[in-house]
Fold this sequence. Notes:
heterodimer, A: mainly beta, four-stranded antiparallel β-sheet, 9 helices, 65 strands, B: elongated
Amino acid sequence: MFPLFLVPYLPILLLPSLTLAIQQSQAGLIDWHTPLIGVPLAHTPPTFHRVHLEDGESTKSVIVQATESGVLSALNPVDGELVWRVSVDEEVVGVGRQGHGALLASLSGPGGSTLRIHNVLTGVLLHETRLHAPSTGQLTQPPSIGVKIAFLPGSDDVFVLTNGRTVTRFVMDAERGGYKKAWEWTSLDQSSLTIYSHLLITPTHVYIAGLSKSFASYELALTTLSTPTAQVVSESTHVPSASPNDVDSIAFLRAQGEDSDSGRLVYLSGTSLSSIPLTGDVADVKAVTVVKGPGFTKLIDLGLSDQGVLSALKLGGAGVVLRLFPSTSSPPTLEMIWEFRDSASMQLKSTYTGGLDKDSQPYVARVYWRHDDSGPLQIQVLAPHLGERGVVSGVVVAGYDIQRDGVVIQVSIDAATPSPHSIVSRLVLTTAKGSIQLWHADKVQWKREESLASVDGGCAVLVGLPEQVGVSGGEGGEGVLERLSRQMHDAKDFHHYLLNFIHRFLQPSSETLLAFNTTTTSSPTHRDTFGVHQLLIVATRFGTVHALDSSTGRIRWTRTFGLGWLGEPNFHDASGEEAGSGEIIGGRVEPTGVYVLRESEGERGAEVGVAARRRANNGLIDTVVFHLDALTGADARPGIPVDRKEGPLQAYDIIQGPAISTLLLPAPADSSEPASIVFFDERMQSYMYPHTQRLAALSPQLHFPLVQTVTGARHALLGHGIVPSPEHALRPIAYPTWRFPLRDGESVLDVQKPNHLAGRAEGSGRRVASWGRVTGNRTTLYKWVNEGAVVLLTQNFAAPTAEASEGKTTCGLYVVDGVKGTVYYHVDLSSEEGTCNVKVSFVENWLVYHYFDTDEVSKGWKVVTVEMYEGVGVDDKTSSSDTSSFNEDRAKLTVFERAFVVPYGFAAMTTSETLWGISTKDLIVATHNHRVATIPRKLLNPRRPTGKPTSEEAEEGLMQYEPTIPDDPRRVLSHIYEIANIHTLLSSPTLLESTSLVFAYGPLDLFMSRVSPSGTFDVLSPSFNKVQLVLTIAVLLGGVLVTRPMVRRKRERERWYE
Amino acid sequence: MSTTTLDYASLESSSKYRSLPPPPGFSKSQTSKSHRGTTSTLTPEAYDQLKEKRAWDFAAAPVKSLPMQGFMLYMSGGGVQIFSMGIVFMLLLTPFKNIFAINQAFQPFAPTKAASPTSFSVLTLQKLAYIAANLLTLAVGLWKCRSMGLLPLGTGDWLEFETRGRAPEILL
Lengths: 1058, 172
């Protein structure tokens, strides 16, 4: 019997037994973290930035970018590693870099509402200020219009143009450090007919240029301010007869090497390029036309305006480079210095970029490839300062396969001229497949697969590796010599095996478990002893699928989804008639789910299916499936010739149209048949991949709930059954069987299945080790387990009534029988300012939900743990798990629930999943403060007594209820990593019953670790001394051997004297 | 010298030593003859009565030792330890041992004339009482087991054998 006097101290006594999440020595061995930055935004591409260090000689480069994931970051150009990153809540709309200085300013939010100034080498935030309320920001498309950051050359002053009409100067605050606002100027034209978009700063003047809307076209608006005082020198909202085509047709240029207060405004009007010399107050805004008549179609900002270099496209597509030459006598002259050869060809696609070398000399690069997106990349780099008219060097990047890697979206160049007439360059490319790559000449230096930051929920699965099966020998007809030679051959690795055995023997076994990551240099193709080595298959929004090593996080293989007929010349119109245009429509493939079609079994590897939407650029949507071998990434569709297994994956077209619902029909438990993905089209006809007869055969048993969408609103949950062979259709068809109506104003947010059922085939991870919970007096609470139950999350807006003048939004949570529609559990929760963000984890009979409680008294993050038991109390058994949903006994259940206060919000929740389900299931959470942590099941037991536990309760291990779950750093799995923006947690069993793999992914980072909720009971502890054990046995054996003859002799002698 | 002579051999109706000749120098008839006048030898019937009385005592012995055993159980405590387990094992095993050896145990008390002293039909009442007494000891042992939580009486003890099939409906 448990000593009663210890009961009050029970929580303290239990603390050491709570498994610590991770130890310092294990970090990096059992876990990995891939800090990602996301795919760069169109208007803030990766750009080299070189900082001249204080010693005046050395420089240091970083690659800076702002990304779609809301991250501002710097990469090391040498190895592509992250130098720093900061998460910005709003979209970054503009980034400005200080010449050779270490300042990086960024504007984010609508119209550039927030300014941040960072040190570009360290990421240290020097200044952050709100320039205007986000609600007053101008929403432009693209959002970078009307936002500009400029630095005064040779100083640390920052000038920002925001909202298209306000210019603010920030200067260093000598007294308090950081920055302070020096002055602010706002255009008097508040009608938003004028939007300023460009900025040029000189020591005396601030030139602001933009567009003003007039009747027929745009007119150029140009305002000059005095730099020190912000006094308006000249304001000309309408420069006479200057009408640029659009915002991108305006550019400021500064003549290089000129420290005078002059520059030039260049704009494209129609096809003629004009320029206005900026000298002092711009008294005579008299446009000087440079090229008349049919000339240019587009100006390309190379980021070299301070060097006076600009690129433009001529009519016909030829790319030219223009440069502003300083002149001592007259205003600087703008000249066309280079025209790229072949660039006018319709057979080529080109993209232009500019960069600087160590001495701030400009370079212009042109990256081009064949029009049909095939063949290698070619690069031309122009150094305008070399020779008379510049020197060009070219390189063919044969290693870049456009079919595989996608077209190049963004380019940035960093160049050097080690000797005159030779140019060394390195380029950062952003590809259409979401990868950032650095190419040095024709060799890739590093790649960052940033598409991994765009994995949607349900688009990642963990699959096991196949088992290694020994070479079978001794087949019939093997002679003695053959057998001998085979055995000799097999024995050639024996010494390795022996050394490995001794090594393993001397090592503590838990270290053997740890060592899988460090010793495995190559990618193993077979399962390890403990099954901790698995493959992670993730499909990204960029149309790629990657396989990651679960123990290192390295990418094993990457495949791209083929576009099918969208990527081929089209000779049919939408109705199927011959159109003959031969145009490539193009489009993209958006994966909607990754499903395990076949678990790895014996020697055979796993197979996965990726269900996807193929969205054509003309708006058509197809539903397709890709079928892959998880181990190699090869196309696993039957009947695919080997030569077609390379290149983009070919899809199996399922439906010519969108799928209403995509479900997994689990594989039969004891057969080699695969699982099938079942799709339903708009007419509820079913489609299967791979096609089997199981759907028709099982149809009387099959049920699934579907959200009913009426005119965009998700009003009700409809239960469906399946008719195997309907009269008027060729394939099995689904029909509604029941309807679960929601209240007025209530709409469905999500329908969530139990954790272990998502994306997995039958028989994997749905094992229930114990069907009940034994109480202290050895009665049993039988678990209410219903595999047909789903969690329905809704949002309910209650309109204003007579009692409440304001409408109120609540969040509904229901546990509904997916077969019959019975509501087993229902609760209404408070919403977070009108939005519902309830997180749910549901496994066996255990439901946990998390929400923000807005109640005045108990405001805060709450976790509610709910356990459901059969019948009305202890020992009441209704056998809920194997009775029919239509049996009324199934609806008899007892619910225990308890709410806890947690210090952080959770971004995702799941439970640990082990092989046989014997180990405790801990709750695993990804918190808003960028961590992954576990919460022991023991703490989340809803039957924790409010008072002091009685002896029976203590015997059951129940602790006294405490309303808070404190923030315990020992439960953090993620060590010191910052694991940002997680939306999904995935748990997968290993062959060790004690250990479960945890994978966290989301809009940004990837993180993988292991948890052992009940301790590693099936692995010897590191302190277990095998050598000592063997030595002890050896000594004992020796003792027996020595003493046995002695004893025998003694006995013999005793017989004589008896 | 005692005047009464106990002829133990007469108690043993079936002793195999009965027919053995006396050792050299000892004469049975002589000894008995010399004391015949003064000794009042008990008749076999009286012996049998005495034996029956003894048999009753023997049958009740386990009950008599119960208070002592109860005290020992109390002292050994409720935890599962070597002492308490030893006592509990003793309490659980002795009754069975006793019951299985019941006929041998009552053999000395069998009436002199009994044809087969080890048969159950001899001293039936006493034997039944003996069984009952032993069962009482066993009950005490089981009670102790129960109080220590070693008896699988609750449903929780049988939970491991709970098997469940699959539900007839499948949710996709």
